[in-house]
């Protein structure tokens, strides 16, 4: 890809996406520009991936074709105010923020912009993100394809309606956190059973990875895959019974609902301020 890609912000998500893009060889590292308040993570990205570290947001905005805003939602207003008159003509703006609508970002720019609201997740770092893309009405098919190339370089992506974005945050944007908790808990139990901790993480994570791959590659309903593990009068059905008794599925549904509700609440406030 020959477009110049820029990031403002080099935190969890910015770093994961930059790492994902460079590791996937989507473009030459010299086509990737990053500006950030955090000079340590910025220096690390430059050192590790040979991308261009830019001193300030305004200079970065002036030289990139696709600009990814990777700052916290409550930093959007300030950053956009700073760069809105410096962006290249026909630059595509990509938001990755939770809780800020397309309309709110358009208002912050206060002029017509080509904007794609997205929701990636941190597994971008290892090329396994799941991302949703919501383009505004000015974005062309060609621009969507270009941004899809970027998001596909570090995982999978789908274009969805903005009305689905809260659901996306619950199911894939935030869910890696709950999956890590699940892995941690599985490993704790294995440690209880006498396994060394590092080995326990390996067993737990590979079990989750393999199970996810089964769902994706076989297309078989997760309930049937679960049933296939449960031998009559065996060990697994005992675990399933206990999980049901403890409200496991309900806990996940309620957690994801809390996540969606928070996203809606942030969006209503309109400025990405979660407080
Ligand atoms: N962490 C996650 O798993 C996910 C986060 N997101 C979204 O990604 C965005 C970033 O989140 P994180 O990476 O977790 O946050 P973070 O706090 O780790 O990173 C934010 C980065 O922006 C920089 N920054 C802050 N203000 C700046 C400014 N005015 N100019 C230049 N750089 C500035 C910080 O120094 C830092 O490098 C948020 O909008 C969040 O909603 C989306 C999906 C997943
Ligand atoms: O916790 C958050 O607000 C961000 C958005 C999705 C994942 N992390």
UniProtKB/TrEMBL annotation:
EC number(s) from the headed UniProt entry: 1.5.1.2
UniProt key word tRNA processing: no
Residues the record lists as binding NADPH: 57
A GO CC term assigned to this protein in UniProt: cytoplasm
Molecular-function GO terms, alphabetical: pyrroline-5-carboxylate reductase activity
GO biological process per UniProt: L-proline biosynthetic process
Pathways per UniProt: Amino-acid biosynthesis; L-proline biosynthesis; L-proline from L-glutamate 5-semialdehyde: step 1/1
Identification of the protein by name: Pyrroline-5-carboxylate reductase
UniProt binding sites for NADP(+): 8-13, 36, 70-73
Matching PANTHER family: PYRROLINE-5-CARBOXYLATE REDUCTASE, PYRROLINE-5-CARBOXYLATE REDUCTASE 3
PROSITE patterns per record: P5CR
Cellular localisation: Cytoplasm
First-listed, main subcellular location of the protein, grouped into a coarse class: cytoplasm
